Amino acid sequence: MKRALNVSCLLCYQASPTPVCQWCEDDIFSFDTRKYKENLLSFGLISRHVRHCRYQRLCVYGLYTPPLSSLIHLMKFRHSLTASQEIGRLFVDKWQQHTGPKPDLLLPVPLGTRRFAQRQFNQSAVLALYIGRKLGIPVYQHWAIRQTDTAQHLLDKQARYVNAKHSYALTKHGIDGYVSEPSAVLRVAIVDDVITTGITVDRLAGLLSARYPHLNIEVWAVAFTPPPKSHLLNAENGIGK
């Protein structure tokens, strides 16, 4: 039985049996996990631009360039639940190519009070809940808080570092409910939508490792923002699909 066409693809508005048509999905630059050994921190063009003192692994679906950036914009600023589900699906499909161990817990990056009031949702939490449901991983949202609402994307790299240092804190109980004892080894993944400098997730990973020194910490993100004049899109780099 043939599937009925939706009104249009979210991105190109052509008739499509899926929310994102096959042509638009094929245009998305996604990282080939087999070529960078399932950890983008092993790839110099990214590790040189991303702060990663406190976490050991970085898993990203693709680059923050069109059409993926357009899909993320629909989720964040047009409140499109369909877009968020499609983003989650893309990430899950890519992650299922991995051979490494699965995290025990997903921890979405917290959103500030003012921004949450404006959007009425935390996009990182929405993504974490979708991914966690599909992969069978619990999600805990009340592990950390954002104490200020200054947007990181409006700041330069040094200002981002200073802002992140004062913006985040663990909640009183953190992830105590998932850690049976101080020496317990637990694998967690901090979930964010877009990584630019890595300063936010590194700060959060630092807070976690200070309280729970035996954690294995990963960062999962949908997209990485390439720095100016980046060569990431060059075919010779061999990291795209």
From TrEMBL:
CDD domains, A to Z: PRTases_typeI
Signal peptide feature range: none
Entry-linked InterPro entries: ComF/GntX_DNA_util-trans, PRTase-like, PRTase_dom
Top-level taxon: Bacteria
Annotated family: Belongs to the ComF/GntX family.
Name of the molecule in the record: ComF family protein
Natural source organism: Alteromonas australica
